[in-house]
Amino acid sequence: MCRELGPHLRVSPLKAARSREGTGTMRHRLGTLGQHAALFTILSVVFLGAFIGAVPANAQSTEVQPSDRSFMVSLRQANSWLIPVSKEAPARTTNSGISNAGRDIFEGHSRLDIDLLKSAEGLGVVLPNDVSSEHQALIDEMAQRTGDNHDRAYATIVRQTQGGLLVMAVQTRATTQNTTIRTLAHQTVQMLIRTMTVLENTGRVDPSALELVTAKAQVNAVRVIGQNVEPSDRELLVMLTQHSLWQKPVSRESSDRARDAKVRKVAGQLASEHTQLAQAVTESARQIGVDLPVEPTTEQKSWANAISSSSGDELDRMYANLSRAADGSLITQVAHARATTKSVPARIAAQTALTLLLKHMLLLEGTGLVKANSLQMTNVPPIAQQKSNSSPPPQPDDSSTSVGFLTGIAVLVVAAAGTLWLVRAIGHHGEHRR
Known about the structure:
Layout: E1 3-6, E2 9-11, H1 13-54, H2 66-88, H3 96-123, H4 133-143, H5 147-175, H6 179-200, H7 231-257, H8 261-288, H9 298-308, H10 312-340, H11 344-365, H12 398-433
Antiparallel strand pairs: 1-2
């Protein structure tokens, strides 16, 4: 018999049963499909998460190099005794200069220590918490001193420590690819430039503090620093002059010809401030009797020619990278001169250069064009390549990008394999049902 569905539509029981079976099979297939799809979605999310995690945000390196770690540990160790000794300095002196220097150094290193600990926690760097036995002995020794005896010891030993720390901080600032450590080193250099000057102005710093040695400075009677020209002072003034002789005209030219408005602005500022630097160096040279060159070096001329012969985006990249590499190479030498020179005019020139170079590095990095291989100048300038070499210069994140690219391929392979497995699973299940 046939079941009535309407005046013109009939269906047999067999067909009805098959229809019900088909509906159940379809529901089962949909349920199975949902399970496979859910599983595939989970796998895709897992692999996609791994892929996203492998690509660094903003192409910045988060790796902590041994030199970065060494800087952070050294800064922590210096803070561990400079902070308590400087905190007690105003109570142990009758000299207003030492009292003010103590407060300034205490506040500066305390703020720096807070930033250091926060950075270390974020980067997973373990720093020493306890004061070393040597530094504790130094704290105890300073606690026994008062008056002028305290003042000479405090000014000399603290100044020597800060001088060594300055050189390390500048080296880290110039070369690190980790943006967190770069910021920390930048802040450290700025603070040290200020507090070292305050301490030197007290007139209690012994010349032995200007020697970068690991041993504790000997506190002798305060001697008058002579004005004889040291070879290192002459070299400093010559290097700074030659640096301005190629940077000033190239910056002026780039401020007119660069395509990127940010590069034009930065170049204009650098051209103006190299005039300021040249004036400071010329005045220092006049005071100590140093003859200055009138032309840059042959190598510097080649960098200037490479920039002048380029245009458009190439000029922007050339200018930003060559300028940053030259600044990064020079600033370490300037920091060493600032920490060690016994000549006041040379110290003033080094101080001016250190402040401006630090600022210029920050401005050049702010263009977004500076690459990791341009942080310091090597024997072969990384950007000044021949015109015939049409391949673009390596990016700061080449290795990270390669890892991300390979991971992306892996994700695509997994996705394709998962899709193929899903289709076959559904088809096989359907054949089995039939």
